[in-house]
Each structure stands twice: as C-alpha cells, then as structure tokens.
Write a structure and sequence with these properties.
The chain is an alpha+beta fold. Helices cover 15% and strands 28% of the residues. The strands form four sheets. The chain has a five-stranded mixed beta sheet. Strands 2-6-5 form a three-stranded antiparallel beta sheet, with no helix packed on it. Strands 11-12-13 form a three-stranded antiparallel beta sheet, covered by helices on one side. It is globular, with a radius of gyration of 20 Å.
Length: 266
C-alpha cells in the first residue's frame, strides 16, 4: 500500500492541516515513522518548502486557529519519543520532522461549530474529490453523527495527525483565506520574472534578474538540475531519479519516500 499522491500534478494543491493539542505551533511537524504505512503520520514526508500548513486545535475551543509555511523538506529522526492515543506507554521509533516558519493566527479563529452551516458543502467536496481520484484524499474535516438529527451533528477534524487541505476548501471556508498563497505570485521565488514578464529593467539592489538570453537560461537551468541530481544521488543516496518537467522538475526516492522537487537556478 502506498500514499495516494493525488495532488502531485496540480501545483495549486500546496496545503495541509495539522491536528494537534500542542500549545506551541511554531514547533516543527513531528510524527512517528512506523514500519507499515500510516498515512496520518507519513503524510508529513510529502511536504515541500513553500507549502502551507493550517493548524486545527484539537483541544477546546476546537477549530482552525492559524497557519505556517514549510521551510524545509521532511527529514527522518533516528529516535522519536511519542505516546499513542490508545495506551499510556511511551514509544521510541523513527520519526518524521519538518521545520515550519512563523505561526500566523486567524483573527478570529474558525471554530468547529461555525462550520456547521456549511458542513454539507464540505462533505460534498470530499465526495467529489474521492470520486475524481478513486481513493481517499486524506480529507481534513468530517461529519460526526451523520445519521443523527441535524441539530445533533458535529464538525470534527479527521482522526489523524496530518492531513491534506484541498485548495478548493478556501472557496468554502472564508475565514481561512489568509493562509492561501497569492495566485499572482510565484510561491517558490518571487524575485525572478517569468518569460511573459518584461525584461530590461535594472534590478533593485540585492535582487536577482532572470537571464534574457534563452540559451543562457537553458544553461543555468541545466546546471541547477545537475547540481540537484548530484546532491540527491551522491549525498542522500537516493534512487529512482527522473526529470519530469513542470510543475516539478524531478522525482526521486529518498530512504524509500518519493519526493517531487521544483529546481530553480539563477
């Protein structure tokens, strides 16, 4: 069984949700890495720098309280101490860790009860995505008590530590739009103008311009890919290296975990 990476060919799907009762949301993402696939933990391995993580507070008052940006690829911790929800005995296993940037609070937070009026829209989106992609999409929000009268139903986060937050949810949950990456900007590097933007202007001090000569651009990009390939194959001993083009330049497997990476050079 493998993770259903349904988002990998859609560069807009750069959002996740952490479900935690921790107070310090500036801490890195941390989850166990078990011998068998446990997607609620192993999804941490899929984050990319520049992705955004929305935070669901699992203790009262429950709901979406803010967001952070992923700063680094996930790495493996050799000894991670954690305690399962079921049972009180602490365990030590391998772990996943990914560094997050500054926490940005939603003002006000979007509490679970405030999602009740739009719960049917949220559930309909989950069903539509599952129908489109054929398997679970690791949806972040569920309806609890679906067979109960409407007044007794509740909004709950998925029973997992880490889930996917489909970009379509921003059109349903208005209170979290501050976490959305501005579609008019390049989410990886806003300093470099793309081919369709005008060239020839002097760059402000400290900023980088994109090469005008297409042959030079190709040479720079080729060099960047060569450096990335050497890093993954020689330094990280990765396997299954492939150059795949946009929206990701390479696919590679690191310690058994597939990664998709956009490579930029200047």
């Amino acid at each position: 069984m493998t993770i259903n990476t349904w988002w990998e060919d859609d560069p807009a799907q750069r959002y996740w949700m952490q479900i935690t009762d921790r107070e310090d949301l500036n801490d890195p993402l941390l989850s166990p890495k078990l011998p068998h696939l446990t997607w609620g933990y192993d999804l941490v391995s899929q984050v990319q720098p520049g992705d955004r993580v929305l935070h669901w507070q699992a203790r009262a008052p429950r709901g979406l309280v803010g967001w952070s940006e992923v700063e680094e690829h996930a790495t493996v911790i050799p000894e991670y101490k954690w305690k399962p929800h079921q049972g009180s005995q602490e365990r030590t296993t391998l772990g996943w860790s990914a560094v997050l940037g500054q926490f940005h609070a939603f003002t006000p937070p979007v509490l679970s009860e405030e999602l009740l009026p739009i719960l049917d829209q949220i559930v309909a989106l989950d069903e539509a995505l599952r129908a489109q992609y054929g398997r679970t999409v690791y949806f972040p929000i569920t309806k609890y008590g679906a067979n109960r009268p409407a007044g007794q139903q509740q909004v709950r986060a998925a029973e997992a530590y880490f889930v996917k937050f489909p970009v379509e949810l921003f059109d349903v949950i208005s209170g979290v739009r501050a976490a959305r990456i501005d579609a008019s900007l390049d989410p990886v590097d806003t300093d470099l103008p793309e081919d369709f933007q005008p060239t020839g202007k002097k760059a402000p001090a400290g900023r980088t311009t994109r090469a005008v000569d297409p042959k030079l651009r190709d040479a720079v990009e080729r060099r960047a890919l060569d450096v990335a390939k050497a890093y993954y194959l020689e330094e990280l001993h990765a396997t299954d290296y492939q150059e795949v083009g946009k929206p990701y330049n390479i696919r590679v497997t690191v310690r058994g975990v597939p990664r998709r990476c956009e490579v930029k050079g200047s």
